[in-house]
Structure formats: structure tokens, C-alpha cells
Amino acid sequence: MEVEVKLRLPDSTAHQKVLSLLSPYHTKTHHQRNTFFDGACGELSTRRAVLRLRFYENSENVKCMLCLKAKAVIIDGVSRVEEDEEELDPKIGYECVSNPRQLMQVDTRVLKRAKEEFHVGEEGFIGLGGFKNVRNVFEWNGVELEVDETMYEFGTCYEIECESLEPEKVKAMIEALLKENDIDYSYSEVSKFATFRAGKLP
User: Fold this and answer.
1) Cβ proximity of 63 and 87 under 8 Å
2) CA 144 to the chain's CA centroid
3) Counting Cβ atoms within 10 Å, is residue 88 exposed (0-12), middle (13-18) or buried (19+)?
């Protein structure tokens, strides 16, 4: 179970203010490309699950992570989702983006779960598309903050995320920082994937 605080920033101005405020604590920037898949007969989506390939395209050394997410719930800016993730050869990952049916031929723990637990049939997987995300990471007050700029075909969203076993405590810390610096925010109500599937900004 992944538990994250998710606070939405209203616009690029608020996003830039947060980046500037946290700049002394910056550790890295990830350029992510996310592509999503369902079973050809909706085997994953009908059970509130989705398969994701995430490429970290920072340099020539591209990294690819395969992730199965299920039963996502967001309440008062705290997200809880079942997540199973493993690394995949980026070359195989890109091939699967081009031809999602190839996912049936890839032998990994996560794909085995997707096929067996969610009963993905012989027709295999279909691609749903995806989006890009620029994630700036900060080590701040003992927690790792991720400040996201998510670029969809229909617009851009800005968000602060922080994975924590004490989400209410961390949420209060982040909220205090934003209020002290007059930065507007709201609790995220939907996931990035849900926004993508809706085809419009929240």
C-alpha cells in the first residue's frame, strides 16, 4: 500500500514559487514519460486497476519501471493505492509501448500478477496512452517532497506529493509552509491517471 500526501497547486506561478522556496533542498529532477495499459477486454479497469510503464528519460541511461496499481482512493489530500513495482529493461519497455500485445510475452512478477490475478485473456493488453511529468525532488525537514509539472494534451497540472507513513503530520507541515509564504493550494481529489482518462483538468 502506497500512502501519499497530494496537494494541488493552482497554476505555474504557484509552482514556480514553490520551486524557488525549496531550491536549497533540491536533490534531483526526473523527466518521466508515463504510458498506461488495460486488458483488451477491460480486465484491469473493471477491477479499478491499471498497468503503467514509467520511463525516466533524464539522460542516455534511461530507466524503466513497470507498475501495477489498484483500488486508488484519495480523501482530504491523502492518497492510498495498492502498488506493485519492478524495474524493466527500457528497450523491452519501449517495444511494449509500440506494441502492447508484446506484454504477454514478457516474463516478470508484476505482469504475472496482472495476468493471473486480473485474468487478462489471450487478447492481451491494449495501450491507453499517457502523459509526461517533470518531477523535482527535495529533501526537506526529514521528508522527501516531489513537486510535479504534469503535461497532458489538454493542459498542465501542478502538484506536491510526499509518500509517508504519517500523512496527516506531513500534510500539516506542507500546508504550514504554503500558508506562511502565501501560496495557494487545494487538496488533490483525483489521481494523475484519473485526470488523464477524464480528458480535462480537475
Assistant:
1) yes
2) 15
3) buried
